[in-house]
Design brief:
Elements lengths: L4 H18 L5 H29 L5 H23 L4 H24 L5 H17 L2
Helix pairs in contact: 4-5
């Protein structure tokens, strides 16, 4: 099942390792432009019907897709730049997750009517402790 934690961590680990290797041979801009062009070709080949359906039904909500594209590019630029620096990537990711998970949980609750259980609150508490400890 896509989206399970185990698969995402392996993909993310592979992302980090490949970036670290590629940064020995290419600039950040070269990596980003080539990855996105190749990704666009692959995605277009696999899902071209969906693209044309979306274009045929183009409306003002398409701005959200454009914003998502900018968000994804910005995220990858920041992550690739961080890989180039001699920074403990685990610390950076620990802090990012410590910020990301509580915000997503709260936003999901207030804007998308998702439930937050007691165990979720306990998990958020431990995430806070983990972030505190990982930054020491």
């Amino acid at each position: 099942m896509w989206g399970s934690g185990r698969q995402l961590y392996w993909i993310y680990l592979l992302y980090y390792i490949l970036n670290k290797i590629l940064l020995n041979y290419y600039s950040i801009k070269q990596i980003i432009v080539n990855v996105y062009i190749l990704s666009a070709i692959i995605v277009f080949f696999l899902f071209n019907k969906d693209f044309f359906i979306t274009i045929d039904n183009l409306n003002e909500k398409y701005i959200l897709i454009i914003l998502l594209a900018f968000t994804i590019i910005s995220t990858n630029l920041i992550l690739t730049y961080t890989c180039k620096k001699n920074i403990n990537f685990g610390k950076v990711e620990g802090i990012a997750m410590g910020i990301y998970i509580p915000f997503v949980t709260i936003i999901s609750y207030y804007f998308f009517n998702n439930e937050i259980s007691f165990i979720n609150y306990v998990g958020l508490f431990f995430i806070g402790i983990g972030v505190f400890l990982s930054t020491k």
